[in-house]
Fold each of these.
Amino acid sequence: MDWTLWLELVIKALVLIFALLGGFAYLTWYERRLLARFQSRLGPNRAGPFGLLQPIADAVKLIFKEELTPAKAYKLVFFLAPIMTLVPSVIIAAVIPWGPPFQLGDRIVTQSIADINVGVLFLMSIASIAVYGIVLAGWSSNNKYAMLGGLRSAAQMISYELTLGLAFVVAILLGNSMNLTDIVEAQRDGRWFVLVQPVGALILWIATLAEVNRHPFDMPEAEQELTAGYHTEYSGMKFALFFMAEYQKMIVVSAILATLFFGGYLGPWVDRWPLLGPVYMFLKIVILLFIMIWVRATWPRIRYDRLMAFGWKVLLPLALAVVMITAVGILLAEINPWMIWLIPIFSLIAGAFASLMIDRSLRRKAYA
Amino acid sequence: MQNEWLYIGLFLIVGVALPAASLIMAAIITPKKSNPIKNSTYECGMETVGDSWVQFKAQYYIFGLVFLIFDVETVFLFPWAVTLNKLPLFAVIEGIVFILILLAGFTYIWRKDALEWA
Amino acid sequence: MATTVSTKSVDLSTIFPDAVIADERKGYTGWLVEKDNLIEIATYVREELDYDLLSSVTGVDYLPEEKMEVVYQVYKTTGGPGLFFKVQIPREDPMEIPSVINIWPGADLQEREIWDLYGIKFPGHPDLRRILTWEGFEGHPMRKDWQEPFYEEETKPFKSRWPKGEHIHAEEINPYHDNLKFPPKFNPENWTPTDPEEALYTSLKKFTTKNEDGLEAEQIIVNMGPQHPSTHGVFRAVVVLDGEKVVSLKPVMGYLHRNHEKIGERNTYLHNMPYTDRLDYFNSMANNWAYALAVEKLMGIEVTERSEYIRVIMSELTRIQNHLVWVGIFLNDLGAVVTPLLYAFEERELILDIFEEVSGARMMCNYYRFGGVVRDMPVRAFEKLKQLVYDRLPGKIEEFERLLSENEILLSRVKGIGYLSAKDAIATSMTGPMLRASGVPYDIRRAEPYGIYDRFDFDVVTRPECDLYARYHVRIEEMHQSLRILEQAVSTIPEGPILPKKPVYQVRVPAGEAYGRIESPKGELGFYVISNGKPNPWRYHVRAPSFINITALEKMCVGEKIADFVAILGAIDIVLGELDR
């Protein structure tokens, strides 16, 4: 193999990892400042201008904190769990295309670590692995809150995994490929999949919220119930790794959502200046993150059994229906291209029907 | 194409090295003053009673089983979705019938109250 | 206006001529009941006379007469004055009085408190453990012959702190050394906190359940608290969980116990006023009023007209800010980070501004005095008040409703959760919004109007749902009603003196007993004060709504999810300063 290839790979990997790390650090700042604005207060503004050095201060504090391992814990798993949680959240970013390829000297540089033909499948499988770290963290702590948090996250993640998979199928159907670059390219000329299949995008967004344990689905770490959930016993750097994993997952799922439904790196003049691609991705991710934080600032938490019921009884049937509608619509579009717009119409009808049925399907069977 | 997977493998190594390095760094830097009280299990300040590694409620497992069935079936949809345009009409309808079968099984589970969190 | 309620008092001594005599000590009312006939008479009072709400049970130690007394205060939820009956027993161990828990389940925690603080046993009580002090505690601290560590003197002001006119800290002189007492063979170094807990855990019954499919699942005991983010302080509930479901629950309290009542008996009457602030620190204005009411009843003095209005204004403002904070914290318990809480605090701060202008303190107001209030309301505060009442608060409360009341997630979290039927609510002595949310229109401002509440036009808010949804709505609607009262009070407040006569440091309180109760934002807040003519109260008892409303916690939680436990506890609206006293 060519040594330049190695160099390219190492540079790309380092850039991506440091971008994710910096993204994580400043996402915490972004979230705290935003939450503060939602709550009519200021947020961190002491460390550096606008509190921009706050993440660094936090990092220093966490590094110097004493790490405790409970005497009753299963030590090896307890040590490995944070790593197992963090790694998937990093490597899942490997297949995301951050921009179109560009010419550097006489070689073409792609703006992704790996451009594999089963990118969507890769996303799906890595997303499933992420739950292991959390479950094992909860189990190995030998703590009741952590145990409950771990179990909750396991059940919750597998419930929304299905919906996530089906939402991926929608994107595959529309993009006609499992390669993420192909899916992005299929959205050229403003034909973002969110316009063709808005309900699919919504389903994917809800499922990813549940996958990354974000509000209002943050059961595994529900502070009011389980103190801190699966990471109750973790402190210092190990806790920081969980924290890091959660925020990196937020960034990555926003990137996935942007790639699959919001045109990925596409935007004006991106073909002339390929380095605009990451900029567009950044903007789209920031907007999607803003919505996530907005949700956190405004909504109460759904109760656990409701969350499961919502995933199974509302979201999953809706996702199946949306897959069918999309498939039929694509076939009809071959007869007449305008038929493609039957997809959003019918899926919106299905979505409206599902939301009308929410109350019915979630109603408690036994009343005290 | 083989290269691409190699890239991911390399990226994985970097990805593992990152948390490992930070844990090692923390292990060097952090103060180590543990005592039995600090290392006791946290339960809101009380001594914990009973074991937390117990036979837990079966509800969680039922969801696990249901998931297993559906997840495998969902994965079958992936190749079907990729080649939708190239498939003959028969295969497309077969795919839709497959989804309907999924739905039928799903309805069965629903009616059996397996999705009810009691 | 106020509905007419029966004011006819019942003559128990003609019904039970052998067992009941009228309490004829000077300044006392009620009936003295023979210990052996207590159950019979209590059943009669409950069943035939319809006194369904056991407001307060408390002990009194008459050391000079060598007697212990337990006082029962019962009311009708349809309104009207209460019925007091007392049981006297000789003051020598073992002291036993049959438990009335089967007649009024609301006696549960209160009888445990009496056992803990006075050492009177209640045969028939299923779970008579100590409640406010810990299991290994030596002695019963409310007894008059019990002396605390660093004990100096029986009553304040302590002479030892001002020898020759100079101040000395009590800790420096240690007049009686530290006076610490431990149980025999007790070694604090070796003591582990698990032993006394066994009684608690065994009372919870651990067992395994078999599911329908034959799989066995074990239940686990989880301590929610004392160091838990959502128990509103150092409250602890031991929960038995089957998966996510609550199977059984016991509240544990007393972590913040400071023997408020003993302190109150050491203090002079006026000393106690700032101490009442520390009970429910959100509602110091309400606490002041209840205490002032009891002492005014003893002293037999009238409150000046202007002060009556100021009292109503302050009390209703307190109610609004308490309910605002409650809505915020309740939403926080449901998991809505802290946004609603901070929105609520914004309005609360404006109300606290007014408190600050009239009393000098935002939370510990210490504003009421016997016969009035400590100083008049400044003009600027009055202008602020008008602006708040007419312009700002109505819109803000509606904004809360608009933002929250229709929220789908909120509704799914509160509807049908924490069911407590009207019958159970009355039986367990629930008061305040908790009782009204079960559909019982019982509001002391109407049932037995105090102050000048009979002059104002307002509705007693009830909801029929008996669940969290009802408790949420009752509080929102009560804020509207409070605003109605405030509007009337602001527009009709007269000029005039605020105190009937020159304020004095040492009030003369004639011997007797009095029970002053008000509708505090959390429920019925009562002060039971006994005077023997000396400068300090002989008995000073707080009937704390936070404490007694906890009685029904288990009933509401069993069968619900662990997440609902947090919401149900939050909906009771407890404040640990008042709960543990």
Amino acid sequence: MSVAERVPFPAVVLPVSALLLAVAGWWALTVALALPPFLLPSPAAVAARLAGNPDLYLANAVETLRKILVGGAVGIAVGFSLALVVWAVPVLKRAIYPYLVAARVLPKIAVAPIFLIYFGVGFETAILFVAVIVFFPVVVGTAAGLDRTPEAHLDLLRSVDADPVRTFLAVRLPHALPDVFAGVKQSVTLAVVGAVVAEWILSNDGLGSLILVASENVQVDVMLAALAVLLSIGLLLYGGVALCYRAVAWD
Amino acid sequence: MIHVEDLSVAYGDLRALDDVSVDIEPGEFVTVVGPSGCGKTTLLRTIGGLESPTAGRVSVDGDPPEVAQADARLGFVFQDHTLLPWKTALENVTFLRRMAGKDPDPEGARELLATTGLDGFEDARPAELSGGMKQRVAIARAIHLGADVLLMDEPFGELDEITRDEMSVEILRLWRENRKTVVFVTHSVPEAVFLGDRCLVVAGSPASSGPAASTTGDGTPGRVVAEFDIDLPRPRDESVFGSEAFGRQVAQVRGALHDDA
């Protein structure tokens, strides 16, 4: 039995201490070097920014979260459905699966300016962009997962002449879940990136936009405050997916 | 009754079985022994309708295996336990019966688990069970399915020897109590002799089983080279392993295997 298992709290205490130490170091740096706040504000100054105008951050956070959730849901739904189709139709799989895998190397961010030309600025364009970014890990994860069922399990079901749809739902899909969720976990991280980039290029609201405007005005404290909110959103979403997975996980 | 007549099975150019004929009576316990790659598993899988004959025919109570499959008359137990890792022992037992479209019988499943020594483990998941326990669940699943015929493909192959012996005694008890026809494939001669009413010795080496064979392509397809009635009194238990008659029968079967090799 390891130390962490015997005493539960050091597992939490160490990373939290490291975080506090880092924040303290940041603070000490701003004080010791007497850095001007417009270059590097102290943690207290950033916290004051957040506390001073919570509505601004909340309203923008809601905008960003909407893009992540709606775009993410669309991307996951389309990715999952396409993976089912590609998996079920071997000809399709051979024809397009290599490109789905290869498309992972393409920096999807680079297509945002193209979207701008075709679809213009707006919520819908941002959603589309987030969905495209989210789509790829889900489609690849799901397609890989559906092939994960051991042959012997399929033999077992064939030996009672089980209905293919029931076989799929009862055996193939559960066997695929770990890979599907691995894809979704990657997607959640990418969705946050996608939403911020969308707010730079494809819409004029949300935390990404706030950061961009603050940068033009050299308001580092605002930018850091917005980053802190983004970080919280990302962690919450990742945690949410991890919890969902734990509810259905078997591995 | 299982009827196998002039059965040949080939995968492309690879001939796995050649001209095998066997009849197995209802309630009979037949063991099939032979080295790895001799075609014994192919024979079992063809009886169970998982492989198709290239020539000859197989019937189960007069029907083709596909019909027997659809009626849930065939209960497979594989070397790999094939339990679903996300289901409990009880759910695994009832699962196959449900997939076969038969009426659920949760009470029957519970009783069966209890008689296979898994009382108190109904809600355990496969990861929490030992190798022997997992195979007990897999056997209970096949019996609970209501199959008349149990097709067992080296079910104890991955267990340690002590557990194997225990399981051998156990499977004989379950067979007595449930009156099934059993076809049991193994590469262990003592296991084949201990369990069977009759022991079929299969020999052969399909062309692709070794590097030399695959270049020359001269592998010999599997055939039944000998057949022994096992003359040991039933019910059999561990004491049989030490008996002189048992040793003599094992030596006979070994002899048949080596004659052919």
Amino acid sequence: MIKSTTSVFVQTTMSEVIIRVKNLKKDYLGDVITTALGGVSFDIRKGEFVSVMGPSGSGKSTLLHILSFLDRPSDGEYTFSGKSIQELNDNQLAFVRNEEMGFVFQAFNLLARSTVYENVELPLIYSKMSVSERKETVEKAVASVGLSDKLLMPAGKLSGGQKQRVAIARALVNNPPVIFADEPTGNLDSKSGMQVMQILKDLHAKGHTIILVTHETYTAQFGDRLILLKDGFIEKDEPIVKSDKKITTLK
Amino acid sequence: MKSSDAFKTAGKSLTQAPMRSFLTMLGIIIGIASVILLMSLGSSAQKLILEQVQSVGSNLMFVIPGGPSGSRLASPASVQGIIIKTLTEKDIDSLRGEPSIDAVTPEVRGQARMVFENNDSETTYQGVSSEFFAIRDFKVVKGTIFTKRDEETFNKVVVIGQKLADDLFGARDPIGKTMRIKNTNFQVIGLLEKKGVGPFGIDQDDLAIIPVTIAQKQLLGIDYFAAITIQAKDVYNIDYTKKRVETILRLNHRITDKSKDDFQVSTQEDALAILGDITGILTAFLTAIASISLVVGGIGIMNIMLVSVIERTREIGLRKALGATNGDIMKQFLYEAVILTFFGGVIGILSGGALVTIIYFILVNLLSTGWFFSLPITSIVISVVVATVTGVIFGIYPARKAAKKNPIDALRYE
């Protein structure tokens, strides 16, 4: 088991570290204390596409929640873009989520009765952006996922693939440096899933840092680095070597 | 988050479930409508009563036996078995000499069996002096009123009200007929015009008015008065005249200490103020009862909002994940409650106003009763303020609950 190593990437990338995790632990308190993360350490640099994999119960969701400032670690250090999670209060975490993070969820999490436009606008109403700027920004984001003709349709009436594309438009409307995707293809057929992954790949190409949590080796291959979790520890942290679009590092 | 966005978000959530929003508002609507209705009815009744009292004449004052409250002679002294006999002819003469006084009439009252042929009636008689008719604005439609001379000569004459005339004489003309009051024969010389029911439900038409002298000597066997009614001259301030009356009476009764007064002088304005107080208290009381339904409506809102918070756990989690602070979530849900109560208040005012109008129409046009249309602006202002405050108070708890939700638990919630 490879534990808390970052060495593989130190020499290969020049860009700055955006996420730094040191000995991160998370316990859930209940009748018995459950350890979801036993102590993980790694750095993620700007512009990386990291696929996080692991069986259920391996702690990958917990890790994503902490990385995306939705939860706090029980122990260890986490610095996002130079800001330590310990030093930020809940409102400051909300501001960072709003300005520097985008979210794509497995269950889409759209407001079904609101229109595509309103769904995509959602992060902006919590931002400092002026109302006049918003319209253009939202329309641009919706156009980038190819749904301009559905702008005023209630989100609940879209197909699964379209819904996830709306969710992606919502994730990138604030132009955040980092996008977190939690099983984005889990509820989709393979064709829609491919479309969604292609959009994420394009975003990566445009310079966004993507952190993808998945249990499908097929979607994981879109990344260029794999973090494999098992029982709350990092089992593997290595580059994904692509040859003929096949992942050779995975069984 | 800008307040305009919070309002838009809150408004959108409400319009997306219109039926639920309406049902939630219903409690507030009913509450506000009943507050409006009761305040309006109270204010109409108040106006009606005051108008009736004022119709008696605003420059009148009344002297009744009995001391200031708290004293041994505090009114109603007769209840304690004390009959105060100090208002006498001497007082009347002194008051008639006062320049600020226009007219004075003593009054005695009694209840007696009145008979004409085979008809009889148990009716109130009033012994007064001839000035009474001018002071109280009692006019005859037939015959005449009695004079000073009738008083002085103890003439047994009577002026009767319309109801008494009907009871005793039926369709016949009562003028010139002789009727018996307490076994004494009186000649009917005048028939009063119809006055209707006065304040406090006294029928001003079921009445016999006789000279005060004959009432005292023949019917009652007393030499004091039950009350004195005084009409002040308009050029004098009514309070000045009141002070003069008090001074004169104290002098006559040899009273040096105000607190030992054996009489009370009250002006029409005093009576109006007391009536205003009474009806005001009544209105406030009714309004307070109606307000209970507002509280019930508020609890209804809180209840639905709590359900709504649970139902929208996922949405709350999502909003938080996308950057909403606890304050933003709190704002959204609080605004929802306030919007519900505000519009509930507006609809309540409109329905309350409609009810008031319908009642007015029925009373005045269909039942031809005297009534005032009154929709006090204060009732509207109070309703809107109370409704909105209710929204804030009962919205805070659910809104706080929403704001406190942990985004992960909220997102995971299925």
